[in-house]
Structures are given as C-alpha cells and as structure tokens.
Amino acid sequence: MRAFIAVDLSEEIRTKIEEIQEEFVKLHGGLKFVDSKQAHQTVKFLGNVPEDSVEQIKSALAEISQKPFDIELRGVGFFPAASPEKARNIRVIWIGIEKGEEELKALQEEVESKMNALGFPFEKRFSAHVTICRVKKSLSRSEIGRVLKKIAELRDVEVGKMLAEELKLKKSTLTPKGPIYEDVYVKRLG
Questions:
Q1: What is the pTM for the complete model shown?
Q2: Which of 181, 185, 161 is nearest to 12 (CA)?
Q3: pLDDT of residue 158
Q4: Is 40 a known active-site residue?
Q5: Is the dihedral of CA 122, 123, 124, 126 positive or negative?
Q6: Which of 40, 44, 114, 150 is catalytic?
Q7: 57 phi and psi angles, rounded to 5 deg
Q8: Is 129 a catalytic residue?
Q9: Separation between Cα atoms, residue 64 and residue 103, nearest integer Å
Q10: Helical segments of 30-153, H only
Q11: Max Cα separation, the chain?
Q12: What is the pLDDT of residue 75?
C-alpha cells in the first residue's frame, strides 16, 4: 500500500483553506488543488509499503512519546522558494505553520528515527507547511505575476489554530480524480 504519516487539520482550518483556494481558482486553470477535506501536515512519506510491514509501522508509532501541542497556520507561500521578482516558476502553493513548528519538527524527528530503524530512508529536509495547490503546467510570465500577486495579498492571512493530538498512518489510493486517504492507524499523542 502507498502510505504516509501525518497530522490531520481541524475542520475549521480545512474550511479556511478552501476559502483561500477559491482565491486562486479564479486565476488559472493549470492549478491542481488539494482536496481541502483531506488537508494535512505530512510528517513522513513512506511510499509503497508491503502489507506485512504495516504492523511493524503501527508498533513503532505506538511508541511515539511526543505530547499534544498547539499549531497555528498563517500565510501563503510557494516553492521553489524565491523572491517574487526572481520567481521563474511555481510548483507548489502552501500555507505556513507559524506556531508549533518546533514541536512539529521534534515529532517528525522522532517518527523519522522510528521509521529509519524499520529501513525507511531519512528525509533530507523537513519543511512545516500544508500544500494547498500544485502547478501542473508551466505558467506564462503574466500568469506567474497574477499568482504571485495573490500570494503576496495572502502572505499574512490567519488560517487558524488547533491542538495537534493525533498522528496518523494513512493509506493513499491514487485515482484520476485525486488521491483518497484512509486512516490505517491513529496514535493519540501524550
């Protein structure tokens, strides 16, 4: 099964993400939006996992010691990172995590260590952000300009606060209409 480990977002935050996505829908048809009802903070992407490894992963996640923590999402940005005047392309539009980034990083490091012990490779770099959109085709200079202008307008937008108290192992089934996520295991933090 194709799998990843994540912190799901609250319904209030997901509603706000949907409102923010609507701001971009008007700009360009080449943007592929993440289903706001499935918005999450990825902690570790596992890729294709053999079915007989799932129980080991669940056991490792059961040992996570991180306590619940508050997170606050704020502001829109993009990858690859560049100043607006130097941006030549946009691949991902995201919402930043302003508060709780250190705790999220600590959680990610603990998960990373447990998964590495099971043979999963270490992530080279972790970035606390929630992807809301991917750019599937090249944008013209004027299209990039319009998208960058909207990102600048939303740079400080308040998205919401929540208590991160669960870590989830999720199955991802790819379909032509987008991925379908299913909770395989839920670890309550604390």
A1: 0.90
A2: 161
A3: 97
A4: yes
A5: negative
A6: 40
A7: -65, -45
A8: yes
A9: 13
A10: 54-62, 101-117, 141-153
A11: 51
A12: 97
- Plot region of 81 (φ>0 → left; ψ -120 to 50 → alpha; else → beta): beta
Instruction: Kindly list the structural domains of the chain, giving each domain's residue range(s) and its CATH number in brackets, ordered by start.
Output: 7-45+67-164 (3.90.1140.10)
**6/3 Cα distance (integer angstroms):** 10
Tell which residue, 168, 172, 160, has the closest CA to residue 187: 168
User: Would you say 167 and 64 are in contact if contact means Cβ atoms under 8 Å apart?
Assistant: yes
Q: Which of 35, 38, 50 is nearest to 3 (CA)?
A: 50
Measured CA to CA, the distance from residue 48 to residue 1 in angstroms comes to: 5
- Answer whether 8's CB lies under 8 Å from 40's CB: yes
Cα 96 from Cα 138, distance rounded (Å):
24
On the 0-12 / 13-18 / 19+ scale of CB atoms within 10 A, 151 is buried
Length of the chain: 190
Q: What is the DSSP letter of 80?
A: S
- Out of 114, 129, 150, 187, the active site residue is 129
CA 131 and chain centroid, separation: 5
User: Could you list the pLDDT tens digit for every one of the 190 residues in the chain?
Assistant: 999 999 999 999 999 999 999 999 877 667 889 999 999 999 999 999 999 999 999 999 999 999 999 999 999 999 987 766 677 788 999 999 999 999 999 999 999 999 999 999 998 888 899 999 998 888 888 888 889 999 999 999 999 999 999 999 999 999 888 889 999 999 999 9
Which amino acid would we find at residue 61? L
